[in-house]
Fold this sequence. Notes:
The complex is a heterotetramer, with 1 copy of chain A, 2 copies of chain B and 1 copy of chain D.
Chain A: E1 4-12, E2 18-27, E3 32-37, H1 43-50, E4 58-63, E5 66-68, H2 73-78, E6 81-84, H3 96-100, H4 112-125, H5 140-153, E7 158-162, H6 170-185, E8 189-193, H7 197-203, E9 206-211, E10 214-220, H8 226-234, E11 253-262, E12 266-274, E13 278-282, H9 289-297, E14 304-309, E15 312-313, H10 318-324, E16 326-329, H11 333-337, H12 344-349, H13 360-374, H14 390-399, E17 408-412, H15 420-435, E18 440-443, H16 447-453, E19 456-461, E20 464-469, H17 476-483
Parallel strand pairs in A: 3-8, 3-9, 6-7, 7-8, 13-18, 13-19, 16-17, 17-18
Antiparallel strand pairs in A: 1-2, 1-4, 4-5, 9-10, 11-12, 11-14, 14-15, 19-20
Chain B: H1 4-7, H2 10-32, H3 41-66, H4 74-92, H5 94-119, H6 123-142, E1 147-148, H7 152-163, E2 165-167, H8 169-186, H9 189-205, E3 210-212, H10 213-231, H11 233-243, H12 245-250, H13 255-281, E4 283-284, H14 292-302, H15 314-334, H16 338-364, H17 374-378
Antiparallel strand pairs in B: 1-4, 2-3
Helix pairs in contact in B: 2-15, 2-16, 3-10, 3-13, 3-14, 3-15, 4-5, 4-6, 4-13, 5-6, 5-13, 7-13, 8-9, 10-11, 14-15, 15-16
Chain D: E1 20-25, H1 31-46, E2 50-55, H2 60-73, E3 77-80, H3 85-97, E4 102-105, E5 126-128, H4 132-146, E6 153-159, H5 165-180, E7 185-192, H6 197-210, E8 216-219, H7 222-235, E9 240-242, H8 248-256, E10 261-263, H9 267-279, E11 287-288, E12 294-296
Parallel strand pairs in D: 1-2, 1-3, 3-4, 4-5, 5-11, 6-7, 6-8, 8-9
Antiparallel strand pairs in D: 10-12
Helix pairs in contact in D: 1-9, 4-5, 6-7
Amino acid sequence: MVTLSLEGIAKTFPNGTVALRxxxxxxxxxxxxxxxxxxxxxxxxxxxxxxxxxxxxxGTIRRDDQVVRWSTPRGAKAAGVATIYQHIPLxxxxxxxxxxxxxxxxxxxxxxxxxxxxxxxVASLGTPFPLDTPVGELPIGARQMVAITQALASGAxxxxxxxxxxxxxxxxxxxxxxxxxxxxxxxxxxxxxxHFIDEIMALTDEVTVLxxxxxxxxxxxxxxxxxxxxxxxxxxxxxxxxxxxVARTPGAPVLELxxxxxxxxxxxxxxxxxxxxxxxxxxTLGSGRSExxxxxxxxxxxxxxxxxxxxxPVGRWPDExxxxxxxxxxxxxxxxxxxxxxxLAENIALPHATGLLFxxxxxxxxxxxxxxxxxxxxxxxxxxxGELSGGNAQKVVIAKWLxxxxxxxxxxxxxxxxxxxxxxxxxxxxxxxxDDGLPVILVSSEFxxxxxxxDRLLVLRDGAVIGEADPATSTESDLILMTGGGAPLGAAA
Amino acid sequence: MTDWRxxxxxxxxxxxxxxxxxLGVLAALxxxxxxxxxxxxxxxxxxxxxxxxxxxxxVAMTVMLITGAFDLSVASVAALxxxVLVGxxxxxxxxxxxxxxxxxxxxxxxxxxxxxxFVGINAFIVTLGTLTAVRGLVLILTDGRSLMVxxxxxxxxxxxxxxxxxxLFWPLLALGAALVVLGLVKRxxxxxxxxxxxxxxxxxxxxxFNVAAPVVYLAGFTALLWFVLGFTVIGxxxxxxGGNPEAARLSGINVHAYRLGAFVLSSxxxxxxxxxxxxRLGAINPTALQGTELTVIxxxxxxxxxxxxxxxxxxxxxxxxxxxFTLTNGFNILNLGxxxxxxxxxxxxxxxxxxYTLGAxxxxxxxxxxxxxPAEVAA
Amino acid sequence: MTDWRxxxxxxxxxxxxxxxxxLGVLAALxxxxxxxxxxxxxxxxxxxxxxxxxxxxxVAMTVMLITGAFDLSVASVAALxxxVLVGxxxxxxxxxxxxxxxxxxxxxxxxxxxxxxFVGINAFIVTLGTLTAVRGLVLILTDGRSLMVxxxxxxxxxxxxxxxxxxLFWPLLALGAALVVLGLVKRxxxxxxxxxxxxxxxxxxxxxFNVAAPVVYLAGFTALLWFVLGFTVIGxxxxxxGGNPEAARLSGINVHAYRLGAFVLSSxxxxxxxxxxxxRLGAINPTALQGTELTVIxxxxxxxxxxxxxxxxxxxxxxxxxxxFTLTNGFNILNLGxxxxxxxxxxxxxxxxxxYTLGAxxxxxxxxxxxxxPAEVAA
Amino acid sequence: LRHAARADAPTAAAVAxxxxxxxxxxxxxxxxxxxxxxxxxxxxxxxxxxxxxxxAKGSVQKQANDIDDLVxxxxxxxxxxxxxSVVAQGWVDRIGRxxxxxxxxxxxxxxxxxxxxxxxxxxLVALASQDEVAAGEAAGTLAARLLPRDRPARIAVIEGAxxxxxxxxxxxxFRQGLEKAGVRYTIVASQPGNWTAQGGxxxxxxxxxxxxxxxxxxxEADDMVIGCARAVRAAGSHARLIGVGGSKLAVASIKAGAxxxxxxxxxxxxxxxxxxxxxAPQAGPRFRTYPIPAVTxxxxxxxxGQW
Lengths: 493, 379, 379, 307
Ligand SMILES: Nc1ncnc2c1ncn2[C@@H]1O[C@H](COP(=O)(O)OP(=O)(O)OP(=O)(O)O)[C@@H](O)[C@H]1O
Ligand SMILES: Nc1ncnc2c1ncn2[C@@H]1O[C@H](COP(=O)(O)OP(=O)(O)OP(=O)(O)O)[C@@H](O)[C@H]1O
Ligand SMILES: [Mg+2]
Ligand SMILES: [Mg+2]
């Protein structure tokens, strides 16, 4: 039973960014502490300091009544703090089991008892994944579960979780919640970061909200209204996105798929997308939603079938798709979304090649417009994406495709890890784009989000479209039933 | 539980198939030309002996590559160790000189590792620098001339260390049987098949089969590192350090220490290879082993070790080295025109690498099957 | 807007400082020994000439490394191109033979690139294979002998192509002035300072300053690629392909085409270097340029190019090459003993790399709090 | 030994039948070695024997392996062109224990600092070689004719790559030749040209920049003298140029007046001598050699470039 308290933690990065300006936080045994804040508010930075991955510029950490100082993860571990980081740092070439056991002691690598222990832990989490598959081959959701299991397996007294549920679907989240509740019941202290206010309300005992590196709200969850939290996060009042009162009427067909398939991953799929239509894809982890988007975009070399834009076939490579005006915002922003060594302006300009020479000034102007439009929190257009907070990096990836040349927009989990204020902004933006006639396909594990803005919903399961739902009449629980939660992560069949 | 198809796939076992294929082709060609049997114990022993130095350095290089680093200086370090050995053995005796040589090698590994880890310079350029600098040291030590050991008794000791022939028929047979049993019990098909192959090899080679000592040293060193990598936590951590240093650091692994250790291991192995080299010739010339570093790295990469860290197998590296030396041995046996050797060697290297890469390609298309299903756990 | 401090930091400009430092030290040593002025036009021209072949290959290698690939076969390809040139020039004339040589080189680049991209084998092992195979081709072509061009008129053409001396005083002065103006107008301080240095160089070297043709070819090639990388969409995409291939692919960049293009460029540049080499003597021997690939890669990495793709500058690569050749030039000028050259060269290479790495280090985060020990925590 | 130039089909196809004789060369991509191999193979084929020529590719370790392979194949005799004279002693002893006759070609076996060239290593049936010190001396004698007598001559030596015994042997012989001729001289620079033409060119360029008034450049191999000649011409120097080896290119350059002289080696003859020593050990002395005249433009026709 340990109480960990942070006092006056401040952090200034070497490039001058002030991420934290003196934050206090207490993690008490048996309690779940929710940490919220807009993208770039400083949550991950605080957590890295807690975990010993970053050194604070000022402030102290107390473990019970002792002042402790650590500047390495090893020190934090030894003090009983286990951390799940936002950008899941796993070893891609090692199996899931070995990643979970990464810092295990002893000298033997293959211990049957350790394996049994982890297998039962995984089973108790209820979202099984293959233990012996290299993590690099697992989809992002399963990797998230590996990271969660890794933190839980260490038996730490203090468990710190930075957006552990960002890549999980609703019912999979439920299982994580159950685990967290069990941990709290065992007397552990939990710090839980999330952008989902509903899960904060349901799960936590107390809440801290950060804004611009300062605590703007700290209170018992029980006495709080969700709107108050949202307002504290955004610094203004936030209204949830409502379904449009009148059904929107899509225009002429724009995109047509004829028997688009990928062996082993996606059954033949045909559909038509109309101008201004927002088509939602619902499904569980590994149901093939990303695969469908990749197949449309030509990013899967094994995919077969025809994609037609305005009746003309589109080439089956991403460069041809981009040339035709199809845009894809991929789900894994760090590995698929941006080039870390190029600046924001260069990243945003990357898909748009006109002519031989690039125009630094024009790129900067475009980037600054996108920064403005998406409210990206950055020191400037020539910052590197790696220096941004997770949610802001995601916005950069969306910004790449906001040019007028985009004819079809494919969005794969565009709001994963995005704060509540920005989330509604992005969804509004999607709707505005659609209102201007842009057809959109939206993949989201947030069924609420799908129901709110989609005109039509397709449900995928095991790599096949198994049905269609009407967003006007369906509810979240309908979708959960249809998607059939419970299939193992990473399983195709 | 064990996925046999996967374990015997081209991707996993490609380099073994490549070696067997090459041996088969060479044996057939030799038979067709009426030469003595190619797969004789003596010839196989020769190949293993010829590959032993590169094998020893390659095995350590594999560990190095697994941790995500790189060492171009091994050949120079080996030459330096040989020079130290040959230079000192006459005065202080063989064993102290050999330890001095290993200590010098370890020091250079420590310097390499410290510069890479603590100054933060790229390992490629650091070890390229030490490649040059250490070769310079060899020149200075030898004054640009060949050194030799003059004392016959020391020379005899050195020869004994290097050239003793070790009878291998019974040990090999026993080891093969043990591995087969172990593999079957522990359900590790590769171990079992490896054991069977070893046993078969012993039978093919005949009861009089013996090999030179360096082959035994190579086998021992490989077995040790195979065990460490595959069965100890140190091994797992080495893979983690190379696969994702940040993840390793965040899990509390001392990345610096493991990388530094890999540098020292690589240099010590190179030093040991240098000691064997010095013993073999009882002499050292200043240009000895020049250029061997590329062969060493080629053996590791042919064995499927990734240049980007996090993956690799020491046994396959040895097989990669055997592949390279089987090729030159085959050229010699078949008396192939020198002009064509380079072309054929290059093509065979690329083809061997293609075998497992293509195997991997085909696998990637297949979705992975889950290991733990709810049903299984519930059961 | 422009961060001058950053641009002139050790990290960004380290290799320039290293070269200037080395030149300064050598000039001082030469003066102390009473030798003719070290920084004379003739000597600087010599250094540039000696570095030109490695520079040309290094500049293309930089593009290669930027895209995240790797080419060990350049030296062999250059030798092959030289062999083709020398072998054919007598029969079909210099210009057609030179084009044939470049075409052969381009073909090998295409083969390298196709194997790496479409079979998916690691570039290191593929180009190690072609290094061997292409050297084998050279042996086959030359049949192990030195080839030479016998026709005096063809020989004269070749010599003219390679050995013409180009007066550089006025062009250099003009270029320097232009760059200063451009740099000031476009607010690119490096360009302005580069222009000033060029102008100063011209003044130091004197009005009679001239250099051999390869230096001009190197300068032209570098300027071209500097422009392409820094100012065109192609350049930006090359960086993107190396920085994150998957993100580049999903941004609609044809990663295959860019990588393949880099392989072809690297081979064609090597072929051009080979043509220059062949023209020097009108002859070629089978071991020509052996081992040069490591020097080429060293030049690129000394210039700060990343082995992992996504970063690099062709101008700095040329400076890296100049650094390496300045060193040997200095050894010759100071008449340093051959045995000591290796040691010094290695140390200088590491030290030069340290200059900019340390600069980068200082910019990075430093832990401000001391490490905690479990004991402290428990206490 | 690793200098450049030529040889025809160094490995004559293995004619089935006939006794097999092995030659372990330093590397067949070195034209000098390739020419020795050609001489060896031609001589073998003339007597109906089968030559087995192995290519050590410049690696001592590979040469050791090659020799093991030759012994394993049961050849009737082995000629070694050793990459390293000191190291080769072990090989000769090892082959001797296997009962196979062994000869050395092109370089002696034993420590070249202490063993005279004609003091043939005990385990060898014969040594076929030119005398490197004598070659240096011939170059020195030739140089003496080209140097000014009225003042101490300023001389630079372009060495081969560091670590080869020939570097020291040829330089020693060269100084002996000069001293015997009674020349007053200083060696103002002694720098490696790494046996290659571009190495020689660079070394000469750099030395001439530091020492513009050099009288003579002694290059330890012909490839380097050819590169050096370019540097001398480009620098507008009047330095005289001498090489060692008698390569085709050097002979052509002497005819053209770009190079002043060289020492004429005949690698094909050497290869043939080596084969004869194995084939008929009793038919000659244990040290077999041939004349190595220094040639200038006046008598260049005496030297037919064999590599
Ligand atoms: N390595 C870094 N270098 C410079 N600045 C950084 C670095 N990492 C984070 N920052 C900056 O620090 C601030 C806080 O970032 P942090 O990652 O803590 O935000 P967050 O609250 O976790 O946001 P998100 O919800 O998007 O994950 C941001 O302005 C970010 O740009
Ligand atoms: N890198 C990979 N290697 C092997 N199989 C993969 C890989 N990526 C995805 N799969 C498999 O392909 C199938 C479809 O995955 P896809 O990513 O399209 O699903 P999804 O519905 O988008 O889920 P997610 O939310 O995880 O993105 C799944 O069975 C998954 O296990
Ligand atoms: Mg965060
Ligand atoms: Mg997905």
